[in-house]
Amino acid sequence: MRLVYAGTGGFAMPAFEAMVDSQYRPMALVTQPDKPGSSPRSSSRLVGLGLKGPALKGGVPVYQPASINDPEGISLLEKLAPDLLVVAAYGQILSPKALSIPRLGSINLHASLLPRHRGASPIAHAILAGDAETGVSVIRMNAGLDAGEIIGMVKTAIDPEETAETLENRLSIMAAHLALSTIEEIALGTVKGNVQDPLLITKAPRLKKEAGNIDWEKSTEDILRQIRAMQPWPTAFTFRQRVGSAPSRLQIIKATQTTGFDPNAAPGTLFSTPTKGQEIIVKTGNGALALLLVQPAGKSPMPAPDYLRGNPLAIGDRLGMGFEA
Q1: Positive or negative CA dihedral for 118, 124, 127, 128?
Q2: Confidence of residue 314 (pLDDT cuts 50, 70, 90)
Q3: Where are the domains of the chain?
Q4: What phi and psi, each to the nearest 5 degrees, are found at residue 225?
Q5: Are 123 and 45 in contact (CB under 8 A)?
Q6: What is the three-class DSSP state of 176?
Q7: pLDDT per residue over 223-239, tens digit each?
Q8: What was the pLDDT predicted at 275?
Q9: Hey, do 3-200 and 209-320 end up sharing a CATH topology, with the first three levels equal?
């Protein structure tokens, strides 16, 4: 079977590497153009270096068209003439023309239990929504966004402490096993498809930087999910407002629910306690959080006691949205 893999990195890598080491070795990799200036903390979809290295090391030809849908991209697919196109976190929506080229169609590895969380950021949205479980779906691709028939699925529980980064790592390994078994079924002609229920569709649009901005009036549970869902990008953040000083940006890397706060305080109010060194406690809409790991602007992540040594709290200090100078 002539296979072409279209993916860019992160979630797509284990499945690609598994295929390279299997009887279903891709004849080519199509990936996004290199963007060397991209931050290593940014979405792996945006950094074309992700799969290129392993592909070249494994002797798989690499192609990086600016768009898979423009004449250059279409011509490339026509010349490769794949029987099957396997897509995972590629970063571009394929046109009907591109999808029509592979003889056996195109399949997509998607990191959610479709039709829940269709879109570019399903893992973060599953955590934000408080889902108890998620998984990986394989679909026959059509012109709709993540709308094709489901031909494979695996499920897993979401750990209460998992971040989007750690959950993606787990799901990517699951996707590798599922990809190989699904391709095997396609090769044998035994694969069966299930139409997605339109009543169960939810959307998972691509995250923007402002998605990390914490609203302290929200519940403790919602804020904890936001902190986990925003890692590794864009990272949950807030602004520390001090009397007589300009607001300063503060990223929140890790926090936990806590007690020992004034229930009448306004959301965003800061408290410091001498428990095990010092904790930074922040009032939320229905309780409080203890900040465990934070990152001031221009600095590395640090435990709360280290932050407080250089940035002691004062009466009137608070955290809040939209106060950046």
Answers
A1: negative
A2: confident
A3: 3-200, 209-320
A4: -65, -40
A5: no
A6: helix
A7: 999 999 999 999 999 99
A8: 55
A9: no
CA distance 263 to 286: 8
Q: Among 95, 87, 118, 103, which residue's Cα sits nearest to residue 19?
A: 87
CB within 8 Å of 104: residues ≥ 6 apart: 1, 83, 84, 186
| Whether pLDDT at 44 is above 50 | no
Banded model confidence at residue 47, pLDDT cuts 50, 70, 90:
very low
- Matching residue, tokens 């779906």: 137
Rounded Cα gap, residues 29 and 55, in angstroms: 7
Q: What is the per-residue burial (b if ≥16 Cβ within 10 Å, else e) of 155-189?
A: eeebeeebbbbebbebbbebbbebbbebbeebbee
CB atoms within 10 A of CB 260: 11
* Gap between the Cα atoms of 213 and 8, Å rounded: 27
CATH superfamily, domain 3-200, is Formyl transferase, N-terminal domain (3.40.50.170)
pLDDT at 219: 97
Pick 209-320's CATH classification: 3.40.1190.20, 2.40.10.240, 3.90.190.20, 3.10.25.10: 3.10.25.10
Please state the pTM of the whole predicted model.
0.92
